[in-house]
Amino acid sequence: SEKGSEGRKAGESELKKEFVQFMSQISQMSREDTSFNAQSQLERLTSTLYVNPYDVLQLGPEASEPEVKKKYRMLSMLVHPDKNKHEKAAEAFNAIDNAYKVLMDPEKRRTYQRVMREA
């Protein structure tokens, strides 16, 4: 019946909303739990291949441009090769720099936000 189909679609939509909210909360917790020191950031940024620039900068897709800039500056100060002599500092800084460039480009940022909403 049509009513059964509509009810199922509404239920699926609500379930999808709950799932997205749950994943957002999990992501937020992992961002908050990460210790904010140079060594842990170097390990985090060089041990994983990040596809999502929000994950690199430890931000959610709702982050504002000023929040992106602030986080970029904070992480850069920790891992910049001029300030950190670790062998992987340049690699970590490049990951941060690339993520920042993507999120500061309005078109690329919208694309990532759309992809994350659809995921």
UniProtKB/TrEMBL annotation:
Q: Which domain of life is it from?
A: Eukaryota
Q: Name one Pfam family in it.
A: DnaJ
The cross-references to CDD domains, in alphabetical order and at most eight, read: DnaJ (cd06257)
- The chain positions of domain J read 52-116
GO CC annotations, alphabetized:
nucleus
Q: Which PANTHER family match?
A: DNAJ HOMOLOG SUBFAMILY C MEMBER 8, DNAJ HOMOLOG SUBFAMILY C MEMBER 8/LIPOPOLYSACCHARIDE SPECIFIC RESPONSE-7-RELATED
Instruction: Please state what the protein is called.
Output: J domain-containing protein
Q: Which species is the source of this protein? A: Strombidium rassoulzadegani
